[in-house]
Each structure stands twice: as C-alpha cells, then as structure tokens.
Automatic annotation (TrEMBL):
It comes from the Bacteria. The keyword Lyase applies. This is Isocitrate lyase. Signal peptide: none annotated. Keywords: Lyase, Metal-binding. It comes from Litchfieldella rifensis. GO terms for molecular function: isocitrate lyase activity. Pfam families: ICL. It catalyses: D-threo-isocitrate = glyoxylate + succinate.
Amino acid sequence: MSAYQDDLNAMAQLRKAQGGKWDNISPEYVARMKAQNRFKTGLDIARYTAGIMRRDMAEYDADASQYTQSLGCWHGFIGQQKMLAVKRHHGSTKKRYLYLSGWMVAALRSEFGPLPDQSMHEKTSVPALIEELYTFLRQADARELGHLFHELDDARAKGDEIAVRTVQARIDNFETHVVPIIADIDAGFGNEEATYLLAKKMIEAGACCIQIENQVSDAKQCGHQAGKVTIPHEDFLAKLNAVRYAFLELGVDDGVIVARTDSLGAGLTQKVPVSKEPGDLAYQYNSFLETTPVASATDVQEGDMVIKLDGELRKPVRLPNGLYKFKANTGVDRVVLDCVTSLKNGADLLWIETEKPHVGQIAEMVDAIRQQVPDAKLVYNNSPSFNWTLNFRQQVFDAWEQEGKDVSAYDRAKLMSAEYDDTELAAVADEWTRNFQRDASRDAGIFHHLITLPTYHTAALSTDDLAKGYFGEEGMLAYVAGVQRQEIRKGLACVKHQDMAGSNIGDDHKEYFSGEGALKAGGKDNTMNQFG
C-alpha cells in the first residue's frame, strides 16, 4: 500500500473517531496536503539529503564515473527552476545537488549591498538562503503533485481505471525536487564557537553538507584572489570538530563535512603554532615558514620572533603587517598535508582551490593524498574565475608542442582571440573542456563538480540581451521572441507564472476549506489559459 493510501486510510479513521465533528474534513484532501508537504522541518531535509550524499559517495568509490554535480544558486527561485529543468531534461534529480556560494551571498544577498567575498556579509544570510532554497524546492513538489491530483480527479470522473492506476503510480513514485545542498560557511565567521553556532543554524535550515576553508576568518579572501592567509592545523581541526558536534547534536549523524584548503595560493600565515615535539603538526606547519638563521643576538631585531627548527635557531620572515611568509614552492606540499590531516580528523571530502582547471595538476596532489588516505575524494570548483577557453586552448597548445606538432600558426598568448574559434586547436580544446568533469572524476578523484556562481553570470547575460532589444529597435518583440516564445517552445512551466507562484495550489486549498463557495483565481477568465 502506498504512503498516500496509508495517509488517506489513517485520516478516515481519525475523522470517524470524532463523532461527526470533522465531517467537513476530506481524508483525501488531507492525504494530498501531507504528500505535498513531505518535509516538515529543515532537519528532516538534512537527514534525508545526508543519506543521499553518503550513498552517492559509496557509489563513486565503487565506480568513478558516478560523480555528482551542482550549480550555485543565489535565490530560491533560481534553485527551483534549476531542479525543475534537471528533472524535465534528464528524468531524475539523482546525483544533482545545489551549491550555496558564499561569494554569491556576499555579492547578492547582503543588506550592505554588493560585497566582495571576504566574509563581510551577515552570517545569518547563509542559513536564510538555505531555508529559502528548500522552501522553493518544496513548493515545486507541491505544484507538481497538485497537477497529478487534478489528473487523478479527471481520470476518476471519466471512469478510466487504467488512467487512474497510472496516475496513482506516478503519485506513489513521485521524486522530490529536494536534493542535497553543499553550503559554504566560509572560514566559520569567527572562532570555533562561532563556527558551531552558525553550523547549527545552517543544519536546522536543511544543510546536510558544510564546506569550511582553512583561511583566517577575519582576513578571508575569495579563493581566486591574492592575499590569502591560512591558519595552523590545530585551529582548523577545532572548527571541523565544531561542525561535527553541530551535526551530532541535531541528530544528523551522517552529515558531510568538506574541508577546503587554500594553501596552493596562500603564501602567508597569521600565527606561528606551538610545537610540543619534533614532527607534530605545529612542527610540520612551521617547517614551511621562510626563515633566516640566527647565529647571535645581533641577528635579532627589536620585536623579532625566534623559533628552534631542527636544532637550529631561526627567525621567521615577518612582513610589515605582522604576517609571516611561507617558503616559495611549498604550496603543493602544504595542500597534501592539509588534506591528509583533515581526512584523518573528521572531514569527509576535500576541496583544493586551484588557479586553473588542469586534470594533471589536480591528479598529482590527489595521488599524493591517496598514498595515505586511499579513499580521498574531492569537491572541485569549476570556477567562472578561470578563463576556460584560454586555459584549455593553451593546454592543447602545450601538449601539441611537446608532441612535436607544428604550432606556428598559433600565438599562445592570444589564443582567446576569436580568430582561432574555427581552428583545429579550438575544436580539440572544446572537447577537452566537454570531457573535463568525466576525466577529472576518473583520473583525479573528483566526486563532486560544482560551478560556484554560474547563475550570477546567466542572470547578467540574459538581462543584457533583453535590455539591448527591448530598449532598442526590437521593442516588445525582444521579450516576446527572446523570452516568452522560447518558454512556450521549450515547454518551460514558468511561462504560466501564476501557477508557478502558487495560484493553483491556493485555489485547491480554497476548495478544500470552503467547498463550492470558494472564490478562485483560476477559471476561464484567467489569462494563463492562453498558454494552453
């Protein structure tokens, strides 16, 4: 028996027990409303989606072609439309997630207005966006199920039992639009207690997966900007513990933590940790510092710090702003240490922020990590901060040059130029780009591919196209031909925007509550009917 039928039968028994007082309540309508509101709380969502992620991670471990993907969404409506599109075009939401980007929260959701990605936005805006995204995804469920209920009623009215059974099966096997969200907590917005408190709010809003980075919280920079400053491992592990405690306290026992390292592009640290014995984490962290030897007191200036490394007194190089420098060309080694340490201390997934999308570069680091943690796997940022066209054209150029192929027709520094768009090199580069996610998941341990802020760019591009035409010679045709007609031709549900915003759901509820006396917004006079 289906959950829908179970709810209907249970409600019928409950109504009967009220001795006539609930005779105006329809058990079927209650069953429908319960089906349309499967997830009662954010914690229900977090527990459900954590299970999805854990199963997906196990499937990836068994078969690297089973990677997962997401797009960053800055508004609930954007997330909703994304998952509607995924379901419509691909038939299922399986292995498709949402990504909540701290960059987009800062740029688009702060009450201060647009901000850079430096943890200056209100921390409460992060759980608020998680809650908003899930509100819109749950509404997508309610809308789609509402249409199925009307199909069921029509089939019953026609006495078509085959259609009744078919629609009932679609209701019973309905796939929700609610999917995992990988949520960016930046560097924790403060100390470990602040991290714990914010993580709790994010989990209560529905987050089953929290991504945290090893930058200094009050000096946090976008992963693709300069001036990044990392924290010692002990401090980072305290924040990992804080997130895990938040998951466990709230009963999301299989919550997922993504430990991000920015060490590849970070050349500075704010703090020199205290080493208790040679070889411990603090020792390893300090061994990467750029230092100068101290032979006598004359080598030490007023206010300098001196540490003992491998039996020698050395002075860490300190900049005028008080920060300490790492030695050049230590980024890869620091990344490997960061990742191994995080995985051995409670992290589930890794995020290595790189400066370019290069399978070989990522694989080199992952191979080194897997020597110590064999099942290590990554969440990877397919970032719009990369010039993908130029990067892959240059990668093809370099590969051809190494093979001895004649590349004299190409200027490597100018490969972004449109003059190369129709060349063999450009075609090969596009194919490498097309296959990047498959190749990187197979060869470089990437479990999840995300694009942090794609919908920021798509909103800008589509708005630019519309504004160009509408305020120009095309006038109204710019909207009609470029937007509405495309929605109709491509079957986008959003063309009926009243329905998408919940008008039909509201009409159904009015009928449930008021019966024949319901004043509905739908009907023959609703212009939405012009769209069929």
